[in-house]
Amino acid sequence: MPSFVDRVVLHLSAGNGGHGCASVHREKFKPLGGPDGGNGGRGGDVVLVVDANTTTLLDYHRSPHRRAGNGSPGEGGHRNGADGDDVILKVPDGTVVSAADGEVLADLVGDGSRLVVAHGGRGGLGNAALASTRRKAPGFALKGEPGEALDVVLELKSVADIGLVGYPSAGKSSLIAAISAARPKIADYPFTTLVPNLGVVEAGDVRFTVADVPGLIEGASEGRGLGHTFLRHVERCAALAHVVDCATLEPGRDPLSDIDVIETELERYGGLADRPRFVVLNKIDVPEARELAEFVRADVEVRGWQAFSVSAVSREGLRELTFEMAKIVSAARAAAPPPEATRVILRPTAVDDEGFTITHERTHDGERFRIRGRKPERWVLQTDFSNDEAVGYLADRLARLGIEEQLVKAGAKAGDEVVIGGEDAVVFDWEPTVQAGAERLGPRGTDSRLA
C-alpha cells in the first residue's frame, strides 16, 4: 500500500431527505383535529475542507466510497424529522476537485477552504404543511428527495514557492534536507525519492516552501521514470530550479545536456514556460565537480539564467542560494494580485423562464413527449404514486406550471405517451384537463371527455 497518494477518484453520495408524515390529530372529543404530520429532515451534505495537517489523499485511496446520513422522516404531532449528518472530508492544501468528465469544480487553496461537493436531498413536506383553504385535510405527504450521487477526482498540486527539477540522484533531496527541516530519504542510487518532498525555508524575514519532483529522465513524457507523474506539484511554483549533478560519472552526460533534456520534458508537459528559471550546480565538494561548475557557469548565464555553485554536503553556497530564492519569491508575491473576498454569486431564474422544456421524440414504439426541468422532475420524485390524492396534487402542480398548456401547443393528444425526467423517468398516458384542451373542445357537449 502506498504511503503517498496525490490522485484519487471518490464515489460520493449525499443523504436522502426524510419523508413527510401524513397524520391526523386525535384526542378526546376531537376525533378529527386536523392534519399534524411533520416534515422530513434534510439529507446530509458531503463537504470537502482544506486541513493544514493533511498532506496526502491516502485515506481516500483506501476508502473511496463516502456517504452522508439520511434525514429522518417526520412524525405526527407536528414533529419534524432530524437532519442527516454531514460528512466532512479533510483534504490537503492545493487539492483540485474535478468532475468525472474533467470539468474543474474547485481549486481548494488555503486552510479552511470549503466546498459542498454533494448536496443532501430536501425533506418531504408533511400533510400539515400541505394544508390550504382548498385542501384542508390532505391525506398524503411528500416524499424526501434523494441526495446527489456523483464521482469526483481529487488531484493534489502542492502549494510550493520554488520547484526543484533534475535527473535522479542530482541531489534534490539532499538540498532540501540542507536548507530546511525536511528529512527525505537519501541514498546513493537512482529513484531514491518516490514521492514529492516539501520543505519550509527561512531566509532573513522571508519564509517560503521548496518542493522537489522525483527524478525526471529523458522520455518521461512517454512514461519513463517517475517525474512526469508528479510534475503537477510544481505547477503553482513561482520559479523552477534546475538541480544539476556536476559530479556524475555517467557517459554522455554533462550539466548543459541535462538541462536541455529536462527543459524538453517540461515543454512536453506544458504550462510551465512562463516560470523563471535558475540553475543549481550541485556537489562542488568534489574537486572535479567544482571545476566543471566554473566551466559551464558562463554558458548557463548566456541563456539568461542565474547559476549557483553549491554543496549540500559541505553547505557551501547555500546561504546565497536561499537568499536569492527569497528574493524571487518576494517579487512574485508582490506582483500577485491581492486576494479577492469570497463572493456569493446569485443567478436568479429569468422572468420568462418557464422552468421546463418539452421535446417531441419518435421511437420504434411510436411518438412521445419528454418533459425536462428541475421543478417537474423534483415533484415527480416527491410523489407517492400509490396514493391517488398525491397523484392528483402532482397533476395540479404541473398544470399550474403550464405544462399541460405547452403540451397542447406541442401537438400532444389525449392518450399520447408523456415522459417526465431522464433515465429514471416516469411514463404515463396523457389525459388533458378540460381547461388545457379548451381550444379543441368543439361545439358544446361534443367533446368525448365529457361523455
What attributes characterize this protein structure?
GTP binding; single chain; GMP Synthetase, Chain A, domain 3; six-stranded mixed beta sheet; magnesium; 451 residues; alpha/beta; disordered C terminus; Rossmann fold; five-stranded mixed beta sheet; EC 3.6.5.-; GTP-binding
Description:
By secondary structure, this protein is an alpha/beta fold. It folds into three domains: 1-156, GTP1/OBG domain (Spo0b-associated Gtp-binding Protein, Chain: A, Distorted Sandwich); 162-335, P-loop containing nucleotide triphosphate hydrolases (Rossmann fold), CATH 3.40.50.300; 357-450, GTP-binding protein OBG, C-terminal domain (GMP Synthetase, Chain A, domain 3). It has ten helices and 18 strands. A six-stranded mixed beta sheet has the order 10-11-9-12-13-14, sandwiched between helices. A five-stranded mixed beta sheet has the order 3-1-8-5-6.
- Structural class of the secondary elements? alpha/beta
How many structural domains does the protein architecture include? 3
- The termini sit apart by 74 Å
Radius of gyration, taken over Cα atoms and rounded to an integer in Å: 33 Å
What's the CATH C level of the largest domain? Answer: Alpha Beta
**CATH architecture field of the largest domain:** 3-Layer(aba) Sandwich
Percent strand: 15-25%
Low-confidence stretches: 185-194, 436-451
Helix content: 10-25%
Strand arrangement, largest sheet? 10-11-9-12-13-14
| Full CATH superfamily name of the largest domain | P-loop containing nucleotide triphosphate hydrolases
